[in-house]
Amino acid sequence: MSTLQELFRRGTSLLEGVPHPYLETKLLLLKCTSLTEEQLFSSPEKSISRKEERCFFQLISKRLAGYPVPYLTGKKEFWSLSFKVFPGVFIPRPETELIVEKVLEFSSGKEETLVEIGTGCGNIAISLARESPPARILATDISRKALKAAKMNALENNAGNVTFVWGSLFSPLKKLDLKDRCDFIISNPPYLSEREWQELDREIRDHESRKALLAGKTGLEFIKKLIRGAPLFLRPKGYLLLEIGEGQLKKVLRLFDSRWMDIASFRDLRGIPRVVAGRKK
């Protein structure tokens, strides 16, 4: 039988061509051994069972075939919380934490109504629920598979103040009669153009949700609908916050009309304009 240290060395060697071989080897070992990170590094000479070793090398093979690590481990960290993900459910990205930061910055901290359109695994809505317990949060998605993951994540992260509803864009808000009642509408919508989709790494195109990423020919199709439709449901001075793609800022700003004020953009840690915010007049 192999030891943890031996498997770690073999794993990092096999994954030498991936961006983060050390980190990915660690995550796959943790998945197969059910150890904590502390146990993994405090007992390098610990022997691993044949079953655990087979599991590890099966996951290594899948990773080398292009499967994203979160789909192999079944989880992804966001806002220091753990979220279940599986094929067909969009994997959260760290830059999206900027939306959470800005909502918390603009929020009064009181009993506000927040709506997230296109919640995916629920990472934004659940993170906000944990940070702002008084908030009433509605999270929607067109994907029933995504909503299944989001509901599981809400239970695991004790986010009882989030309600999940199936539906496209503003249709759930119409059914719930939320006209002029939302303090925040937030979204990380699909924003890739057809050209950008074709230029993505095969790992993403082959395994992640096309619907969650591809907006259409220009990449602005969903963003345009959100900016045009949000004023009907926001309170006066209510906020719309959207994640946008690299190079989209000028085009997105031109979509805001006279119904909006205090329009601003915010950069992620790489210096890329990533979030746009506007307030209903």
Question: If you had to describe this structure to a student in words, what would you say it looks like?
Answer:
The protein has 281 residues and is of the alpha/beta class. Strand 1 (75-78) and strand 2 form a beta hairpin. It has helices at residues 4-14, 21-33, 37-42, 50-64, 69-73, 97-106, 123-131, 144-156, 171-175, 194-199, 202-207, 210-213, 221-229, 249-253, and strands spanning 75-78, 81-84, 113-117, 136-141, 162-166, 182-187, 192-193, 214-216, 234-243, 260-267, 273-280. The N and C termini lie far apart (67 Å). It has 14 helices and eleven strands. The protein has two domains: 4-65, Helicase, Ruva Protein, domain 3 (Orthogonal Bundle), CATH 1.10.8; 75-280, Rossmann fold, CATH 3.40.50.150. 42% of the residues lie in helices and 22% in strands. The chain has a seven-stranded mixed beta sheet, with helices on both faces. It has a two-stranded antiparallel sheet with strand order 1-2. Helix 1 (4-14) packs across helix 2 (21-33) and helix 6 (97-106) packs parallel to helix 7. The model has no long low-confidence stretch (mean pLDDT 94). The longest helix has 15 residues, at 50-64. It is elongated.
Sum this structure up briefly:
By secondary structure, the chain is α/β, with parallel strands linked by helices. The protein has helices at residues 4-14, 21-33, 37-42, 50-64, 69-73, 97-106, 123-131, 144-156, 171-175, 194-199, 202-207, 210-213, 221-229, 249-253; strands at residues 75-78, 81-84, 113-117, 136-141, 162-166, 182-187, 192-193, 214-216, 234-243, 260-267, 273-280. It has 14 helices and eleven strands.
